[in-house]
Each structure stands twice: as C-alpha cells, then as structure tokens.
Write a structure and sequence with these properties.
The complex is a heterodimer of chains A (399) and B (340).
Chain A (H helix, E strand, L loop, with lengths): L6 H6 L19 E9 L10 E2 L2 E2 L7 H10 L1 H7 L2 E9 L5 H10 L4 E5 L2 H10 L6 E4 L16 E3 L4 H14 L4 E6 L3 H17 L2 E7 L9 H4 L1 H4 L7 E5 L19 E3 L4 E3 L10 H12 L6 H19 L5 H9 L14 E2 L6 E2 L2 E4 L4 E5 L26
Parallel strand pairs in A: 1-4, 1-5, 5-6, 6-7, 8-9, 8-10, 10-11
Antiparallel strand pairs in A: 2-3, 12-15, 13-14, 15-16
Chain B lengths: L1 H8 L4 H24 L4 E5 L4 E6 L5 E7 L4 E6 L5 E6 L4 E6 L4 E7 L4 E6 L5 E6 L4 E6 L5 E6 L4 E6 L5 E6 L4 E6 L4 E7 L4 E6 L5 E6 L4 E6 L4 E7 L15 E3 L6 E4 L5 E5 L6 E6 L4 E6 L5 E6 L4 E6 L4 E7 L4 E6 L2
Antiparallel strand pairs in B: 1-2, 1-28, 2-3, 4-5, 5-6, 6-7, 8-9, 9-10, 10-11, 12-13, 13-14, 14-15, 16-17, 17-18, 18-19, 20-21, 21-22, 22-23, 24-25, 25-26, 26-27
C-alpha cells in the first residue's frame, strides 16, 4: 500500500517518460520482465478442419492475442515502475521440441512461460523446466488431472478446470430445480473427462445423471441409436440434456433436434465458460473493446481471456512485490495478498493446494450470459469461488 | 398574451397598464433564474434506458420528467449557476447538455469514445472527460466543443477530480491500479500513486487535505494526503453478514457539513457513513442492489443512492440512518445530482 515511487528513482527517471506519449524505455535485462509464450504449430484443438466447406463452427481460436493485450494493458504500469514487459512467442513443431524452446526462453531471461498446450505436452514442458526459476502458466488445458494426481508445483492454471465448469453448470441446474440430466457423450477423451466431471458435480450438488448415451457422427441407419438426436433423447424423462462434445460438430445440432422439448446444456445451448464476449458487467465491455481493437474480427473467448489474465497476474505481482526478483514475485503471485481483477467481479487469486486460479464462471448461450457462478445460493466457509472445482480437503494434488 | 386584451378594454389606461406590464416583466426576469437555480429537483441518470429521471422532493418525490438523452447516460454535473446539467453519454460519445429550466437536452458536446466520468474546471470554461476505451482524459472547451488537451492515462481511466485551485487533476486508472497526478501548469503527469485493485472514484475531505479513492475490487478506500501525494491509510469496509469479496466500493460523497463521507458499497448493497476525522465507520445503511451514485441534499437530511441492479434510487433519512423510500427510475441508475 505504500507509494512505490522512491524519490531517487523519480530523479533518475526522465519526467517525460511518465507521459503516455513518451517512448517506452529501451529493453534492458535488469529492467525488463520477459514473458514467454509457447504453443504447438499443429495443435489438433485448433485444426482448421474443425470447419466444413469453409464454415468455421468451432470458435476456440488461439489464446495468443489475449497475452498481447495483457502486455499492452501493462504499458503504463511498466513506465511507472520502470520495467518493460516483453512477450515472446515460440511455436513448437512437435511436443518433443518443447524442452529446447523452454531452454531458449530461459536463456533469454524469461521466468514466466504462458503455455497453450494440451495436457501431455504441458506436463512435458513443466517437467523439462523443473527446478529452474520458471513458472508455467496453463491457458488452455482444462483437465482435472492437471489439478489432481498429475499436478505440478511449477504450473499455475488460468483456464478453469473441467470440474469448475460442470460445477458452475450444475449449480445453475439445481437452483432451477432441473435436476435430472440425460448426458450424451462423444468419442473423444476430452468428452469422457467432461462426463466424469459432470457426474462428480451432480453428486456434489444433488442432481442426477439418469443415463449417459454415446453418440457418433454419421448418417448410417444401422447406428441411428447413436447418430440420431431424436432417437437418442427418447425414452427419457430428464429435465435437461447435457452434451459432451469437445469437437462441437455433433453438439451444435442437438438443440431443437431432441425428442421432447428440453433445454440443452454443456457444449451446446447453455455453456459454462471462463469468458464470453456478451458479458457486460464489471468493466467487461472495456476489456472487450480493447481486445477487438487489437484482434478484430475476433472476440475475446475463454482462451484469450486466460492468456490476458496470465499476463495480468505477472504484471500485478511485479508491480506489488516491491521490486524483488523472481522468487518474491512468485511468492506474491501465489500468496493470499494478490487480487487480480479479471473483469468478472470477484477478486481472483490462486488456490494454494493446486495452483488453480479461483474465478467466477459465466453460463452463456450463443449471444448472452445467462448467469454467473457461483450462484448466490452457494456459499463456502472461506471463499464462495471455492464452491467451483476441487476444494482443499478433496484435492488429490500434493506438491 | 393577456396584455393586448387589457389594452383593448380601455385605451385610457394604456400607460398605466404598460407600466404594470414593465414591472411584471422585470419581476419575472429577475425571478426566473432564481427559480431555475433552485428547483430542488433530483436528477438520476439511467444507463440502459437512456433517460435522466427528474424527481421533485417537494411533491413526495413524484417523477416530474423522464428526459430523453443520448445512449448510456452516466456521470452528471451542473454548471455553477445550475442552469445547465451536463450528462456523459457513453454509447453515443457525447456530453448532453440539459437545460434545467426546460428539462430538456438543448445541446450535445462530442467527445471521444465511451465517456464515463468527468469534471468541470473551476473556471467553468472547460471539462475533463475520462474516455475509458482510449485511455485518455480529454479537456474540452465548453463554449466551442473543441478539444484543448489530451492526457494519456493507464487503461480504463475513470474518476477525474480537478482541484479547486485548478493546479492538479487526479485520475484513476482502473486497470493499472493507480492514481495519476497531472500538473495543469507543467501540462504533464507528475506522479503516479499506487492504490488498491480497481480504483474508481474520488472525493476530497473538507479543507481538501485528503483525497479519498474507492478501490472497487479491494473493498476499501485509499486515503491520500494531498500535500505529499502519499497514501496515508486505507479504510476497509465490511457490512455485517458480508464477505470481503462482496464489498465493492464505488461512489463517494462528502456531506455538506464536511463531517460525513458517504461511501456506496456496490454489490454489498449498503452505504457506509464514515467520519473523515477518525476514519471510523459510523453506520452501514441497507439500500438497493449494486449501489453506486450518491448525493446528499443541502439540508443534510436526505441521501439519494442509485442502485444499478435494482433499477431504483434509495432515499435515506440521514438522521434516522435508515432507508425510507425506494423509487423506480429506469434501467441501471448510475448517478444522482440535486439542483439546489
């Protein structure tokens, strides 16, 4: 809380540099804060064949512009504290190249590496830099295992976990008294993860998963019980239909194709997300506008939000850690004093037991945010945000 | 209209009637501005219904007028004579000018994108508008509408306060968590004061010794010593039954007697009464949902609070320390300004 501009620094610093119009200070190893960014060139999650005849229906998009916005947002902080925030991206041709890329970033002085990687690649990277003064920041892998048995001390998770997402959704369903759920499960490994998270959330909040029915893409009449939405959703008196389809191609045809008039949730209909462009409270529109200015025609999504929040966590910690080195900054970031404003209304911080960023979750349709979780009905003894995801006593993570 | 009728009745009395008319005209001329300066009306801007609601406290707070404005009316300030009310309209990039006597928008001053809060310079000739999307505070000449100056700030500038001697401008940056100090003579930022998370608005204490800044996401107010621009202390708010994370202070207003600072607590749905001398919180008053804008009447008897998420204004009896009324005004009430 003390003013952080010591008088001597003020004298050394050219007064004009305080003005926004002044050029940023030259890159200097002692005054710059370098943030690395690593992704995979052929990450299947962003494959363009997630579209058909050129019509892209999967709006995931790479998180990178979010990190760029984070650095842009930090310019004024950088000028004032005399540190320049530098973002450097390295894209790996294959997961095997990750350790070498990380090594190169560390050699350049990076202590923070934003990782846009699937879970196995993320673990490969984290294990390659273990023991070094580096924090890996996960912005795209929601796997519960990364916050549980496979957790790593040197990873922080900006993107919500699978269980945080399904907890948010099930809180809403139970609050609505739509407690009977019929689940449709796709063939991907991620879809199985979503279903497992859903079943855990249902147990946690008192909902019931009546049945889990597998689906496949296709029009083969011999498999119509697995590819015809109306047939798959018949013989069920569930209140809602949950669809687990990480690819999205099946999910988008579930609403209005169901046997009975039932709301669809999960990967279509009402979806739990870290971010949605239609969120308009808590300063969200300003964040949205800055993003669109930078990355038009893209709108901010969960991944870009997470990358933006990762940079924000770094810049906030550098600003408030009192000019210390990496260990002080890391200690501040993972401590209980940090208060990250994610434009979602509640102060965010990292859970000490698994390094997951605690955060509100938005429940959104294609063009509106219907609710924000945790819902007011759900309270927690210390922080209501911890009603989402694995709480300390149930965590399987042991650093 | 009635004078020609009198004239028709008796031409012999024409001279006397003319004199009477002159007297009447004179009386009406001197009384009109006095009436305009003291309607006693309470003005409430409603962000999502694009209207400024006018309430009359003398008539049981009846709604006198819903003034149509440009889109997303937010912060409001009167000119010195209270003839005009300026309204920042965020989605139409303008400051609307309401004629207080006519209760209608009579002029539109163009700004940059998304004006939110603003302040009028002590000489009344220009205004300083924070434009949250472009990270500047723009100084606009009121007479010509021309931009006189642009002050670059951190992202999402919000609160703007010009000191009464016109020497300094304080500006919050919501994203950079700092208060910029701008010297109007040197025409540059001379200091940046780190405060808590998401600083929003300002108020000065009596004798202008302290600058209070609401830190929305930290649930506190930072008190800055204006002599040194150093942080003096912080005041943490926690109404009974609330979690610290639910307390989001935004609005600040000093009572006319200088003995109470009113702090609206946003999502905590309360207003705090704080003693500026001791920094002790004297009371928490329950109001509507997401309390932001706040204004006290001149007598110091009533406090008006704009509740953004319950679409109403709470009226607090200050002595009884209790909300006595709530009045629906429009969608997402933002700011309250009183003409008296």
């Amino acid at each position: 809380m003390n003013r952080f501009w010591p008088a001597f620094l003020f004298l050394l610093w050219p007064a004009s540099a305080v003005l926004g119009t002044a050029p940023p200070p030259a890159a200097n190893p002692s005054t710059s804060v370098r943030i690395g960014y690593i992704d995979l060139q052929n990450d299947p999650r962003y494959r363009t064949d997630n579209s058909y005849t050129g019509i892209v229906f999967h709006t995931l998009g790479r998180p990178y512009p979010g990190a760029q916005l984070g650095v842009q947002d930090a310019q004024m902080i950088g000028r004032v504290i005399g540190r320049q925030f530098i973002l450097e991206r390295k894209s790996a041709a294959a997961a095997a190249d990750l350790p070498a890329l990380a090594k190169a970033l560390i050699a350049e002085g990076d202590h923070f590496i934003i990782a846009d990687l699937p879970a196995p690649a993320l673990l490969k990277l984290a294990d390659a830099v273990r023991g070094q003064p580096v924090l890996v920041m996960n912005v795209s892998a929601p796997d519960d295992s990364l916050r549980g048995a496979d957790c790593r001390r040197n990873i922080v998770h900006l993107i919500p976990s699978e269980s945080m997402l399904t907890d948010a959704l099930v809180q809403y369903l139970v609050a609505k008294n739509w407690k009977d759920i019929l689940a449709l499960q796709g063939p991907a490994k991620e879809d199985a993860g979503e279903i497992a998270a859903l079943q855990r959330s249902a147990r946690k909040f008192g909902a019931t998963v009546d049945a889990v029915r597998p689906f496949v893409l296709g029009a083969d009449p011999r498999h119509r019980d697995e590819n015809n939405v109306a047939l798959m959703t018949a013989n069920s008196d569930a209140d809602v239909i949950f669809v687990a389809d990480s690819g999205g191609e099946f999910a988008r045809y579930v609403p209005f194709e169901t046997h009975s008039p039932r709301p669809v949730v999960g990967d279509a209909g009402l979806t739990p997300l870290a971010w949605h462009w239609a969120w308009y409270e808590n300063g969200a529109p300003q964040l949205q506008h800055r993003f669109e200015k930078l990355a038009s025609p893209r709108r901010m999504n969960a991944g870009t939000w997470a990358a933006w929040a990762a940079v924000k966590a770094v810049t906030q910690s550098v600003m408030r850690a009192g000019g210390g080195g990496f260990s002080e900054v890391e200690q501040f970031m993972l401590g209980d004093k940090i208060n990250i404003d994610g434009a979602k209304g509640k102060p965010m911080s990292f859970r000490p037991w698994d390094h997951q960023l605690r955060q509100p979750i938005l429940l959104a349709t294609a063009d509106a945010v219907i609710a924000e979780a945790p819902l007011p009905q759900y309270l927690h003894q210390t922080n209501d945000l911890d009603t989402l995801g694995y709480d300390a006593p149930e965590s399987a993570c042991h650093f | 209209m009635f004078v020609p009728a009198w004239g028709k009745r008796s031409s012999g009395n024409a001279k006397g009637l003319a004199r009477l008319f002159a007297v009447l005209l004179f009386v009406s001329l001197i009384s009109l501005p006095a009436m305009a300066a003291g309607t006693g009306y309470v003005f409430v801007s409603n962000e999502r219904s694009n209207r400024v609601t006018v309430l009359d406290p003398a008539r049981d707070h009846a709604i006198v007028r819903q003034i149509q404005t440009d889109a997303r009316p937010r912060d409001m300030h009167f000119d010195k004579a209270h003839k005009l009310l300026y309204v920042a309209c965020g989605d139409d990039n303008a400051i609307d000018v309401i004629n207080v006597a006519k209760l209608a928008v009579v002029r539109r001053i163009a700004t940059g994108p998304s004006p939110e809060m603003f302040a009028i310079a002590p000489d009344g000739k220009s205004l300083y508008v924070s434009e949250e999307d472009s990270a500047i505070v723009r100084q606009i000449d009121i007479a010509t509408g021309k931009t006189l100056n642009q002050i670059t700030t951190g992202p999402e500038p919000e609160g703007v306060l010009v000191t009464p001697d016109d020497s300094r401008i304080y500006i919050t940056s919501e994203v950079a968590d700092m208060v910029h100090v701008y010297d109007t003579k040197k025409k540059k930022l001379i200091d940046n004061i780190m405060v808590d998370t998401r600083p929003r608005r300002f108020a000065m204490t009596a004798e202008r010794k302290e600058l209070w800044v609401s830190d929305e996401l930290a649930g506190d107010v930072t008190v800055i010593d204006t002599a040194t621009d150093q942080v003096k202390t912080t005041i943490q708010f926690l109404p009974p039954g609330f979690r610290p994370v639910d307390v989001t202070p935004v609005g600040l207003a000093l009572s006319h007697d200088g003995k109470t600072m009113y702090v609206t607590l946003g999502r905590a749905n309360h207003v705090a009464f704080v003693d500026p001398a001791t920094k002790k919180i004297r009371a928490y008053i329950l109001v509507g949902s997401r309390a932001w804008g706040v204004a006290e009447n001149k007598k110091g008897t009533l406090l008006y609070v704009a509740n953004g998420l319950s679409d109403d204004v709470s009226i607090i009896d200050i002595h009884a320390q209790k909300t006595i009324r709530s009045i629906a005004t429009g969608r997402v009430p933002h700011t309250v300004a009183i003409d008296e």
